[in-house]
C-alpha cells in the first residue's frame, strides 16, 4: 500500500481547472514581489515600480523557461506544437526563466532610468525565494525527482513526513526528493543574501553575483541526482571533469540515470559551472577596474533625472527657487545695512 498521490488539480470551476502548479508559481511570484517592495522602500522605489516589473517579468520568465525546455526536447514537441502551451504539466527550465526575466529586466530598468546592477541586487532575494517556493510545484507534479532510493532512506534517514514520502513513490519506486533538496538549499542562499546585503563591504552588483554563485553551486550537485536532466553530447574530457568535480557526493549518493542517447553532459551542470566562474570573475573584474565604486547601501540614482529614487524634478525646482529667494532676501538685508 503506497498511499495516495497528491492530486495536481487544486479545484475546478465548471470547465476551468486550477492546478496546484499554477497556484504555487503564483505564490512564488507574490512572495518575491513583497520582498522586493519592502527592500525597495529603503531606496525610495515605489511599489508600483516592482508591480509593473512583475507584470512584465513573469510572462517573460515563463516564456523563456518554456522555450529553453522545448528547444532541448524538440523531438517530443515538434509533432504537437499545442503542447508548448501546457505549462501546467511542468516542463519549464529555471535557467531559461532567468534568461527571459533578465532580458525583460534590462529593457525595463533602462526605460525607467535605473542601473541594472542596483535594481537586480534588490531583486536577487526575490529570485531565490521564488525558486525555493516554485520547486514545490515539481513535487505536486511528480517531476524533477532523483534516482531510486529505499523507502527507509526517506522515512528513517531523512525523517520526511508521510505526505512527502508518498508522493516520492512513482510507479512503485521511491525516488530522491531533489525538489526538497534544492528548496532547502535555496532557503540557505536566501538567508545569506538577506544577511550580507546589510554589510558595508558589499558593492553594487555583488548581491546578484552572490545569488548566481550560491544557487549554481547547489544546482550543480543536486542536478546530477535527477533522472530527467536536459543533456547534450560533449567532449568526453569535459564530461569526466564534471563527474570528477561531483565525485565527493558519490560517497553518499549515486548519480541519477542519464540516457546516453540524449548526451553525456547535463546542461544545467555545465551552465552552473560557467555561472560560478563568470560571477567570481565579474566581482573581481569590476572591483579591479573601479566599475564597482557604488555600494549596495548607496542611494539609487535615476540617471535620467540625476535624482535619488523617489525624488521628483519638482522638488529639485522648488529647492532652486528657495535658494534664489534666500539669496535675494540676503541681498536686500545687506543693502539696507
UniProtKB/TrEMBL annotation:
The protein's name in its UniProt record: Phosphatidylglycerol--prolipoprotein diacylglyceryl transferase
Annotated region described as Disordered, given as residue ranges: 311-337
Binding, a 1,2-diacyl-sn-glycero-3-phospho-(1'-sn-glycerol): 135
Function: Catalyzes the transfer of the diacylglyceryl group from phosphatidylglycerol to the sulfhydryl group of the N-terminal cysteine of a prolipoprotein, the first step in the formation of mature lipoproteins.
Family in the record: Belongs to the Lgt family.
Gene from which the chain derives: lgt
A Gene Ontology molecular function term of the record: glycosyltransferase activity
Chain intervals with Basic and acidic residues compositional bias: 313-337
TM ranges: 20-37, 49-72, 92-109, 178-196, 202-222, 234-253, 265-285
Family annotation (PANTHER family): PHOSPHATIDYLGLYCEROL--PROLIPOPROTEIN DIACYLGLYCERYL TRANSFERASE, PROLIPOPROTEIN DIACYLGLYCERYL TRANSFERASE
UniProt KW keywords: Cell membrane, Glycosyltransferase, Membrane, Transferase, Transmembrane, Transmembrane helix
EC number per UniProt: 2.5.1.145
Localisation: Cell membrane
Organism taxonomic ancestry: Bacteria, Bacillati, Bacillota, Bacilli, Bacillales
Involved pathway(s): Protein modification; lipoprotein biosynthesis (diacylglyceryl transfer)
Keyword Repressor belongs to the record: no
Keyword set includes Cell membrane: yes
InterPro entries xref list: Lgt
Membrane topology, as annotated: Multi-pass membrane protein
Cross-referenced Pfam families: LGT (PF01790)
Amino acid at each position: 500500500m503506497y498511499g495516495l498521490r497528491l492530486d495536481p488539480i487544486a479545484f475546478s470551476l465548471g470547465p476551468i481547472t486550477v492546478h496546484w502548479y499554477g497556484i504555487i508559481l503564483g505564490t512564488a511570484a507574490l512572495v518575491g514581489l513583497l520582498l522586493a517592495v519592502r527592500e525597495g522602500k529603503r531606496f525610495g522605489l515605489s511599489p508600483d515600480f516592482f508591480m509593473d516589473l512583475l507584470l512584465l517579468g513573469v510572462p517573460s520568465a515563463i516564456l523563456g523557461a518554456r522555450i529553453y525546455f522545448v528547444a532541448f526536447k524538440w523531438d517530443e514537441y515538434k509533432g504537437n506544437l499545442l503542447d508548448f502551451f501546457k505549462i501546467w504539466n511542468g516542463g519549464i527550465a529555471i535557467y531559461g526563466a532567468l534568461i527571459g526575466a533578465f532580458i525583460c529586466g534590462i529593457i525595463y530598468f533602462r526605460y525607467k532610468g535605473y542601473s541594472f546592477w542596483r535594481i537586480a541586487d534588490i531583486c536577487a532575494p526575490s529570485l531565490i525565494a521564488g525558486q525555493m517556493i516554485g520547486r514545490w510545484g515539481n513535487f505536486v507534479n511528480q517531476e524533477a525527482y532523483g534516482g531510486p532510493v529505499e523507502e527507509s532512506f526517506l522515512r528513517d534517514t531523512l525523517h520526511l513526513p508521510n505526505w512527502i514520502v508518498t508522493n516520492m513513490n512513482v510507479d512503485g519506486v521511491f525516488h530522491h526528493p531533489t525538489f526538497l533538496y534544492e528548496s532547502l538549499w535555496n532557503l540557505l542562499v536566501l538567508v545569506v543574501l538577506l544577511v550580507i546585503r546589510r554589510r558595508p563591504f558589499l558593492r553594487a552588483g555583488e548581491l546578484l553575483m552572490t545569488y548566481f554563485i550560491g544557487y549554481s553551486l547547489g544546482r550543480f550537485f543536486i542536478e546530477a541526482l535527477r533522472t530527467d536532466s536536459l543533456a547534450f553530447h560533449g567532449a568526453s574530457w569535459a564530461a569526466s571533469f564534471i563527474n570528477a568535480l561531483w565525485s565527493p557526493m558519490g560517497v553518499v549518493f549515486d548519480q541519477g540515470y542519464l540516457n546516453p542517447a540524449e548526451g553525456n553532459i547535463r546542461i544545467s551542470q555545465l551552465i552552473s559551472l560557467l555561472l560560478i566562474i563568470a560571477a567570481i570573475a565579474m566581482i573581481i573584474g569590476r572591483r579591479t577596474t573601479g566599475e564597482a565604486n557604488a555600494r549596495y547601501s548607496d542611494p539609487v540614482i535615476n540617471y535620467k533625472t540625476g535624482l535619488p529614487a523617489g525624488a521628483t524634478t519638482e522638488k529639485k525646482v522648488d529647492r532652486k527657487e528657495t535658494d534664489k529667494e534666500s539669496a535675494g532676501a540676503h541681498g536686500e538685508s545687506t543693502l539696507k545695512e
